[in-house]
Design brief:
single chain, mainly alpha, 6 helices, globular
């Protein structure tokens, strides 16, 4: 029986790895943005409905997604002096799809809150924790591919996650 070889990123062509890198970059960017939104909603959760929280979370990532598509299209026209080819649209749709993914857990938690599983404040707090944990996990997984030292991986990942912690702190200090 043949063993199935697991495909690794290193086995992919450079162009494919670049597309995955773009998708991941957008996902991390959206995670940081959603941290700010979830923190603001959590800080003033008594003044928000479940529907309002869902609209803020989904609206944020959809707006980021649309802004990315629009800016890619506009910049391509400005630089190349012609419309974007269909293949370029496909690349941008794939990379921009990373913007939508981080909203999944916060949306599910707010829906669970609406169903009575927890209150809205708890759903938003757990969303913040999950978003921070996902930043840390992305950093650990990426760092493991480069470094052998557990201490170095942990240090880098904690420092990178501190960006998210900083976003939360700024939102709370600003009173939002």
């Amino acid at each position: 029986m043949k063993s199935i070889r697991r495909r690794r990123f290193e086995d992919l062509p450079l162009e494919a790895r670049e597309r995955y890198a773009e998708n991941t970059k957008e996902r991390i960017y959206s995670t940081i943005t959603l941290l700010a939104v979830a923190t603001a909603l959590w800080h003033s959760s008594a003044h928000h409905s479940h529907l309002g929280a869902l609209a803020a979370i989904a609206g944020t990532v959809v707006a980021l997604w649309l802004a990315t598509l629009m800016s890619a299209r506009m910049s391509y026209r400005a630089i190349h002096g012609k419309g974007m080819p269909l293949e370029k649209y496909r690349e941008i749709f794939f990379s921009a799809s990373g913007l939508l993914t981080p909203a999944l857990v916060p949306v599910l938690l707010v829906v669970a809150s609406k169903a009575g599983a927890m209150d809205l404040s708890t759903a938003l707090l757990v969303s913040m924790i999950v978003l921070l944990a996902s930043m840390f996990l992305f950093s650990v997984l990426g760092s493991r591919r480069i470094y052998d030292s557990f201490l170095k991986i942990l240090t880098i990942s904690l420092l990178e996650m501190s960006i998210g912690v900083g976003v939360v702190a700024i939102k709370l200090l600003a009173g939002e």
